Amino acid sequence: MSNIATPKEFFGHPKGLTYIAVTEAWERFSFYGMQALLVLYMNDRLFQPDVIDGLWGFDGFRMALETVTGPLSIQALAAQVFGIYVSLVYFGPIVGGLIGDRLLGRTKAVLLGAVFMAAGHFLMAFEAAFLLAVSALIIGAGLLKGNLAAQVGALYPKEDRRRDGGYTIYFTAINVGAFIAPLICGTLGELYGWHYGFGAAGVGMILGIVIYLKGVRHLNDPPLKRDQGEKVRLNGREWQVVAALLVMILITSLFWTVQSQIWNTYPLWVREYVNLDIGGGLSVPVTWFQSLDSLVVLVLAPMTIAFWKGMSKRGAEPVDLTKVALGCSLFGLACLLLSGGQMLAGADKVSILFPVLFHVVVGLGYLFSAPVALALVSRVAPAAVNAMMIGAYYLGLFIAGITSGWLGRFYEPLQPIGFWALHAGIGLTGAVLLMILHRPLSHYFAKI
């Protein structure tokens, strides 16, 4: 399918961006709605002895996993499974981007991915089908993520400086969906039943499909790059750019490791160690903190855009790599807040102020890092492999998912103070590496 983008604009951006952003918001609603519940669901229900034996194919899966890790407690097993799931979700776009570029086209790949994701969410309602459900979600996310993100970049000419703003709007839409999802799906799952939450996530995915179909004519789906079987070749300069991008993407896995724990061990820490009572017999649901994570990004996003615009007018705006390094530093600082809060609490519960401040700092770090790095990849990646490289952006999240799951094994033995201090070091390491490699990476990025 080949669609021609129209020249219409909406608030200074191509009209197609609106449909992509709203589609992404609903897709993220479905994805984060399920993800907000997943670790709690595995710990409290799915991996309990009277349930786990009924999961199709799980005995063999667990045996293979524990051959590598050794025996796992319920918490450690949930952390490992979550880490594997998230890592595969974000590895999939590398293959999915290639499929979109070479075989199906981006629009068909997005639609097929959305159908797989909807099926996966509804299958989560059946406990025995857990592995089948997450497999469908992994396949669907692989087809959808990279291709939908690539369609944002395709709306703009290569030299159009609005591209950064377009990706910031796209990431803002992600956070709209991620903000609403735990409030609805998380509350339904925690208070009324796990499967109500998973069902709501499936409905969100269906709405995303409907909106995407309405906006297809405003998108730009370039011709498939498979001219009579000819191989697309990169010149020496383009290979250098690809290598430099891969180095940066590997470093981004450090801040994504911290971000991944917000959905992995962090909910368990909040539930056990944070004082969630706010008076009048009211207690904050654990999943609402994941909504707070997204709310902070929504509030800070326009401020961040205005800040960088003001800096640009004065000729003082830092380059993209510096912004990402600052973001990594903020991720490290945020984890120090959790470690410090636990230390100050002693034997008491941690004040709710500490996780709130944590999300404020993490949100700012996210805005400095995630949309900026993705826009950089979109701008400098060679045209022949652009969608595939945008898919490769998620390689950082793939590594982070594996790493966060592996680190989850140490949550119980290290205890919260040491566990969060470890993650602070991971975030700060990313900042240091980007500063060390700033000059050589900038040299290659400047060639495009």
Automatic annotation (TrEMBL):
Alphabetized UniProt keyword annotations: Cell membrane, Membrane, Peptide transport, Protein transport, Transmembrane, Transmembrane helix, Transport
Compartments where found: Cell membrane
Chain ranges passing through the membrane: 72-91, 129-148, 169-189, 195-216, 237-258, 288-308, 320-340, 352-378, 390-411, 417-437
Membrane topology: Multi-pass membrane protein
Entry-linked Gene3D superfamilies: MFS general substrate transporter like domains (1.20.1250.20)
InterPro entries xrefs: Dipep/tripep_permease, MFS_trans_sf, MFS_Transporters, POT_fam, PTR2_symporter_CS
PANTHER family according to UniProt: PROTON-DEPENDENT OLIGOPEPTIDE FAMILY TRANSPORT PROTEIN, RESISTANCE PROTEIN MDTM, PUTATIVE-RELATED-RELATED
NCBIfam families attached to this UniProt entry: yjdL_sub1_fam (TIGR00924)
Protein name: Peptide MFS transporter
Organism name: Asticcacaulis machinosus
